[in-house]
Amino acid sequence: DTGVSQNPRHKITKRGQNVTFRCDPISEHNRLYWYRQTLGQGPEFLTYFQNEAQLEKSRLLSDRFSAERPKGSFSTLEIQRTEQGDSAMYLCASSLEDSSYGYTFGSGTRLTVV
Amino acid sequence: KQEVTQIPAALSVPEGENLVLNCSFTDSAIYNLQWFRQDPGKGLTSLLLIQSSQREQTSGRLNASLDKSSGRSTLYIAASQPGDSATYLCAVYTDKLIFGTGTRLQVFP
Q1: How many CA atoms are closer than 13 Å to the CA of B49, on its beta-carbon side?
Q2: Which pLDDT score is estimated for A1?
Q3: How confident is the model at residue A99 (pLDDT cuts 50, 70, 90)?
Q4: Which of A9, A35, B27, B69 is the most exposed place for a label (fewest CB within 10 A)?
């Protein structure tokens, strides 16, 4: 297992286009998290899944954002009608249900909306 | 609402110095606290994880302490090196990880 994998690493898109990111967690981890990080700030929680169930969504996650985790394996985060304010690093993490083992993060997807 | 604060926001030191990075949190009802390192434009690398029942954890030149009752953690870096230059983030776990804004460290030769 090579850890948490995110694709693509970088995405440049025009305002108004839709984008989709993928996250492959560590295979034994049943929890998967999405965070967003803007320049100079710490990561902010967006949403998380336990297996295939989406258990919590932040108020930061507008209606243009949707996340899925079919079959409790990989996850996708889609942003519709992108805006310049969506430009950020999108980070995915996974963990066991027992939080005492901590989170493992991927390398992130950097989105630039022009 | 849990809030995490890190001081200082930035730090620039000569190689060889011992450093202390501070993290404070407003709600002491945490399960654990994790320190991460982030290089520019990269993801997060976990450095140390301290359970709520523990007082400290050590890994190489790094030592992290936790005082849950006062809502504080410190990350001590011994004999700093230029390769330690990065942003250091602390995060507390309640039902999810809540992050501070980080300390940007530069170690110059």
Answers
A1: 13
A2: 54
A3: confident
A4: B69
B34 and A45 in contact by Cβ < 8 A?
Answer: no
DSSP H stretches of helix in chain A: none
Tally the C-alpha atoms within 13 A of residue B58's C-alpha that lie toward its C-beta.
3
A33/B contact by beta carbon, under 8 A: yes
> Is the C-alpha dihedral spanning B6, B7, B10, B14 positive or negative?
negative
Cβ–Cβ gap A105/B36 under 8 Å: yes
Overall average pLDDT of the B42-50 stretch:
94
CA distance readout (Å), B49 to A15, A18, A26, B11, B54: 39, 37, 18, 23, 10
Structure tokens at A41: 């700030």
Region of residue B23 (phi > 0: left; psi between -120 and 50: alpha; otherwise: beta): beta
